[in-house]
Amino acid sequence: MLHHKHAKDQARLSDWPHRRDGAQIQLRTHDGATHAAALFRLKHCFGRGLLLYSDAVDVQAKDVITIELEAAQ
């Protein structure tokens, strides 16, 4: 599960999955590695999304990742 880090990103992270629930995206971890993933909207959890990835990604609680939303339209 993920949520925005910066207040300025809240609207985009809320709106994007609402319009493209389950869409393929790219994520970048703290070590600079990129991974394919899918971002799902959590309807019951305002401002949060569920991020699913198929390869091994070393992400711990509170880690900051970069999500490239437009990369997989």
How would you sum up this structure, described in words?
With 73 residues, the chain is α+β, with helices and mostly antiparallel strands. It has one domain. Helix content is 14%, strand content 34%. It has one helix and five strands. It has a five-stranded antiparallel beta sheet, with helices on one face.
Shape: globular
**Secondary structure: helix percent:** 10-25%
Total helical elements: 1
Number of strands: 5
Question: What are the secondary-structure elements, in order, as H or E?
Answer: EHEEEE
Q: Pick out the low-confidence regions.
A: none
Provide the β-strand percentage band.
Answer: 25-35%
Distance between the termini: 21 Å
As for the number of domains, it is 1
**C-alpha-based Rg, rounded:** 11 Å
Structural class given helices, strands, pairing?
alpha+beta
Spatial sequence of strands, sheet with the most strands = 1-4-3-2-5
Instruction: Summarize the main sheet.
Output: 5 strands, antiparallel
- Calculate the mean pLDDT score and round it: 80
List the helices and strands and how they pair.
Blueprint: E1 2-3, H1 10-19, E2 23-28, E3 34-41, E4 48-53, E5 66-68
Antiparallel strand pairs: 1-4, 2-3, 2-5, 3-4
Summary tags:
14% helix; 1 helix; alpha+beta; single chain; 73 residues; 5-stranded antiparallel β-sheet
TL;DR of this structure?
The chain is α+β, with helices and mostly antiparallel strands. 14% of the residues lie in helices and 34% in strands.
